[in-house]
Amino acid sequence: xSLVIPLLLATFLFCVGVYGLIARRNAVLVLISVELxxxxxxxxxxxxxxxxxxxxxxxxxxxxxxFIIGVAAAEVGVGLAxxxxxxxxxxxxxxxxxxxxxx
Amino acid sequence: xxxxDLVLLGxxxxxxxxxxxxxxxxxLVHAALFLAVALAGIAGVFLVLRxxxxxxxxxxxxxxxxxxxxxxxxxxxxxxxxxxxxDSQHRGLALGVSGTLFAVLSWxxxxxxxxxxxxxxxxxxxxxxxxxxxxDWVLPFEVLSMLLLAALVGAIVLxxxxxxxxxxxEPVVPxxxxxxxxxxxxAAPDAAGEVRA
Lengths: 103, 197
Description:
The structure holds two protein chains of two kinds.
Chain A: H1 4-23, H2 27-52, H3 60-90
Chain B: H1 3-24, H2 28-48, H3 52-76, H4 91-113, H5 126-135, H6 138-159, H7 188-196
């Protein structure tokens, strides 16, 4: 099995996430793009672990991917709470209209 | 090009196509559903790479929980179901940045790992993962659990309503059932309480 295929797939997903992060205006869609980028990194970690270091005792790659999944879940929870708060206070989730650090 | 390569290529193309649809779809709910397909495709990639446990975790956590959470998020913020309000002006910039990044990164990857081939794909078994998690990674594991607790509390604090935001709290009115009409009116709540008890 070639190592390049999963790595290129991960790169593509990461770049799609970057595109969404810059191009989208809805805050929830920006969070979705961040999720895509985190998942791309997970593919990288798992590919390197299982193709190059399958016998490593600490299983660093897969466990890092597991930790990233957990942290991403926490990030989604807090991020959506912030978006809901924003919506309740400003009645918009358009990130282009919420660009002041304070008001 | 072995059979495993072909399977990975197919699953990868499906995943990549749904990821692209996620970021360019004009319908917000469709975007969230395409995200669920892309995440399930990534679980399939994990399966092909022989990371069974991660594939199942991906399915349960992402497709089961996070995608549904995003759907709730889109609907609770009264996003315009249908088209996104207006295009961002940054679309060309985004295309330039991500295209350049992809070109540079993929050139680097092909340059560095272009001829690495592995005959047999094998990952650690689930038992080995568990032993490694609770022997070598137990401190990060505990820190992660504290982080999840903090995120839980933070999300509740952020999203709960302020006191009095939804008006005065309604006074609790006991429901009087089968109150004796001859009884003293002051005693009625007690009687109601007894009936309910």
